[in-house]
Write a structure and sequence with these properties.
Strand order of the largest sheet: 7-9-3-1-11
Radius of gyration: 18 Å
Structural class: mainly beta
CATH topology: Immunoglobulin-like
Distance between the termini: 26 Å
Number of helices: 3
Largest sheet: 5 strands, mixed
CATH class: Mainly Beta
Helix content: under 10%
Order of helices and strands: HEEEEEHEEHEEEEEEE
Number of domains: 1
Strand content: 35-45%
CATH architecture: Sandwich
Length: about 210
């Protein structure tokens, strides 16, 4: 998947440095240090169909002894292109030929983002876990032994083969770092194929939506 590049969250804050409110540093209250985590679940169907409703789920467990300040997941960019989350990045000529003002074109529509879903979320808003950082969602402090689950409900709208990459952070400002037991950064990638054949569904007698093979 050709995502908008944001690299590590720390790289963003290093470039920004100060906030727009009074010039104070945005990372002043974030604890500095390493925080042990495990990605206990990383799931996204590798074979999907147009109009199919599915979920991308990332579950992060705090395996250390310290509370994680603000556990977050960023959708990173394997190719370094400037697309929005769950979108592809068209060339300028492709965008012009389609009459598009933006070169970012959705591959998945986000039906419901992670976090609490209040009025804004139910009206198509970004949801309670959205942050000011590019393509990043956060679920707050995470105590030792606890697990935070990030769940994006999405619908496939563009056929093709795509790479979807994620990265876990312990805070939004780069001072708190999430690390796996081996010392590496908690990140991964899904290879997804979306078929041109639309998903077929029906509503059963119980009012449930059932997907047919």
């Amino acid at each position: 998947m050709r995502w908008r590049s944001c690299g590590t969250i720390g790289a963003i804050i290093a470039a920004v440095g100060v906030s727009a409110c009074g010039g104070s540093r945005q990372d002043v209250n974030e604890p500095k240090g390493n925080f042990a985590v495990a990605v206990s679940k990383a799931a996204f169907p590798t074979s999907q169909r147009l109009a199919e409703h599915t979920h991308l789920v990332i579950a992060v467990q705090n395996t250390g002894t310290k509370t994680i300040p603000n556990v977050a997941v960023t959708i990173t960019n394997p190719s370094g292109d400037a697309a929005q989350s769950f979108s592809e990045f068209l060339s300028q000529s492709e965008a012009n030929s389609l009459g598009l003002a933006s070169r970012s074109r959705p591959v998945w529509i986000v039906d419901q983002p992670p976090g609490p879903c209040g009025y804004s979320c139910k009206s198509g808003g970004p949801g309670g876990a959205v942050t000011a950082y590019t393509d990043t969602w956060a679920l707050g402090a995470l105590k030792p032994g606890a697990t935070a689950t990030f769940d994006w409900a999405v619908t496939a709208v563009q056929p093709g083969r795509w790479d979807v990459q994620y990265e876990v952070a312990a805070g939004l400002n780069g001072k708190a770092r999430a690390l796996l037991s081996g010392g590496s950064a908690p990140m991964g990638r899904f290879h997804v194929t979306i078929s041109t054949k639309p998903a077929q569904t029906y509503v059963n007698n119980a009012g449930q939506i059932v997907k047919t093979p």
